[in-house]
Design a protein that fits this description.
564 residues; alpha+beta; ten-stranded antiparallel sheet; 18 strands; 24% helix; globular; Catalase
């Protein structure tokens, strides 16, 4: 059996057989699991109520994520291209003007002036480990805190939001942004084909295609935890929080043209910039700021505070400083430290907790799962990942085990608990737990307050004129290479964000938009030869429509040579 691919390519499955039985309502185009189960809802994971939390027996979600985690060997599936540095976090002991203990009992934040060692890894998301650092792409911003209570990983990006709000869509998102499995080129048509069916992505697209999509370097970019977490105080009371890293070096972004000029000279400019700054004693610093609100659904807001496609308005939830981070030491070996460092959103310490954010819950499974696949079962025994404190477990063996996490005097025959024969024992202190109340039908539904377009429109209007011009040009360049159906769907979504937004993109690709939002080809418009058919320059990376020109230019300008 074969079918037409996105550009009309014939694609055949190697596992085809003569037995083509279908379930009720199923045909040859029906999406299924590897077990042959028809997938009736590929948009929402299974949760308690439509806000979560997610349920562990969600077989489709777990199978999808666990397979996705193993798609690349050995580099990271995402965030493969990265660099890192050591440093420390110094707490202010306060949240704004209040004692931080009012909101969290996490020791990393208590005691003004206390310093905690950290390792930070910056990265790009989509491309391979040797890709240029000038690509239009979100940047990873992951921090490992070696606290007195064990490790805490704050895993985030440079932008404060994300494309999707449910982890079940993450493999689809990354597949759309990764190179075409047939041509092995990133293709904006595939990207916009997915995005045009994903309205909640409009906010992120507005950032990504503006200059904010290409930070000038790692030192001068913001960081964010993206997801909503919880802080828990000594009484077990919880608060919803967002984390934000603000660079003291200022913020700088690049236009597409500037990025291409830099890329022609140096594909590792950001890695070089960070290394040389630290080597020269020009240590980069960030201030950690917190947004906080009472735990709960907050029906007074027009968005769900657990929705990671939304920004919490700063006028309602101000940025409150809680500490600063300084990076002052380069790795002594890039592979041993930067490449083998392993982060996970589930790596929390007492006083920090999960919210029911659907992306956070899916990431919490996926991150640690992929580390065991990529680095190995005992990745936490590596020095860069090991806590800088007492470790004693009953976990044994597995790939590359090179020591036993045993306590001094522990009976080596006892690797279980409880025991009366000299085994490990539970900790004796019992801090008051946070016990959220959960009730609802287990279902697969999107959240109630999606409000996909409001903040995207607000962001469009908040951009400076030159940023807005750059955003429009980058979208136009990308959409020119797309099928007419994808173009019109994207314009419809952008218009719902802001009429001027959609109208300018439409005009840029040769379409006339009427007041009612309908579209037609402008009289006399010089349409691209790709309009509604196979793109001539399909496979262009984000922000560029000159990929085919570069191929032809290399052929024309190449100098002949004699064989030797």
């Amino acid at each position: 059996m074969s079918h037409k691919g996105i550009h009309g390519t014939n694609v055949s499955g190697s596992g085809d057989s003569e037995d083509q039985r279908y379930a009720a309502g199923e045909n040859e185009q029906t999406l299924t699991t590897r077990q042959g189960h028809p997938i009736r809802d590929n948009q929402n994971s299974r949760t308690v109520g439509n806000r979560g939390p997610a349920t562990l027996e969600n077989y489709q979600l777990i199978e999808k994520l666990s397979h996705f985690d193993r798609e690349r060997i050995p580099e990271r599936v995402v965030h493969a291209r990265g660099t890192g540095a050591h440093g420390y976090f110094e707490t202010y002991g306060k949240l704004g003007d209040e004692p931080v203990e009012k909101y969290t009992r996490a020791k990393v934040f208590s005691g003004a002036g206390k310093q905690t060692p950290v390792f930070v890894r910056f990265s790009t998301v989509t491309h391979g480990k040797d890709s240029p650092e000038t690509m239009r792409d979100p940047r990873g911003f992951a921090v490992k805190f070696y606290t007195e209570d064990g490790n805490w990983d704050l895993v985030g990006n440079n932008l404060k939001i994300f494309f999707i709000r449910d982890a079940i869509k993450f493999p689809d998102l990354i597949h759309a942004f990764k190179p075409d499995p047939v041509t092995n080129r990133q293709d904006t048509e595939r990207i916009f084909d997915f995005i045009s069916h994903t309205p909640e992505a409009m906010h992120m697209i507005t950032f990504l295609f503006s200059p904010w999509g290409i930070p000038a370097n790692y030192r001068q970019m913001q960081g964010s935890g993206v997801n909503t977490y919880k802080w828990v105080n000594k009484d077990g009371d919880a608060f919803l929080v967002k984390y934000h890293w603000e660079p003291k070096q200022g913020i700088k972004n690049l236009t597409q043209k500037q990025a291409e000029e830099i890329q022609a000279k140096n594909i590792s400019h950001a890695t070089q910039d960070l290394y040389e700054a630290i080597e020269s004693g020009n240590y980069p610093e960030w201030e950690l700021c917190i947004q906080i609100m009472e735990d709960g659904e907050h029906p007074e807001l027009d968005f769900d505070p657990l929705d990671d496609t939304k920004i919490w308005p700063e006028d309602q939830f101000p940025f409150l400083p809680v500490g600063k981070m300084v990076l002052d030491k380069n790795p002594s070996n890039v592979f041993a430290e930067t490449e083998q460092v392993a982060f996970g959103t589930g790596v929390l310490v007492d006083g920090l907790d999960f919210s029911d954010d659907k992306m956070l819950q899916g990431r919490t499974f996926s991150y640690s799962d992929t580390q065991r696949h990529r680095v190995g079962t005992n990745y936490l025994q590596l020095p860069i990942n090991a806590p800088k404190k007492h470790v004693a477990t009953n976990q044994r063996d597995g790939q590359m085990a090179y020591h036993v996490d045993a306590a001094p005097g522990q009976n080596p025959h006892v690797n279980y608990e409880p025991s009366s024969l000299g085994g490990l024992q539970e900790a004796h202190d019992h801090p008051k737990p946070h016990q959220p109340y959960v009730e609802g039908n287990v279902k697969k539904e999107k959240i109630d307050r999606t409000n996909d377009f409001k903040q995207a429109g607000e962001r469009y209007r908040l951009l400076e004129d030159w940023e807005r011009d750059e955003l429009i040009q980058n979208l136009v360049d990308g959409l020119k290479c797309c099928h007419h159906t994808v173009q019109t769907k994207m314009i419809e979504l952008l218009t719902q964000c802001d009429f001027d937004y959609g109208n300018r993109v439409a005009n840029g690709i040769g379409l006339l938009m009427h007041d009612d939002g309908s579209l037609e080809i402008e009289m006399g418009a010089e349409m691209t030869p790709t309009y509604g058919k196979l793109p001539k320059e399909g496979g262009s990376p984000l922000g560029s429509n000159k990929a085919a020109d570069a191929v032809e230019e290399a052929n024309e300008k190449g100098h002949d040579a004699h064989p030797y």
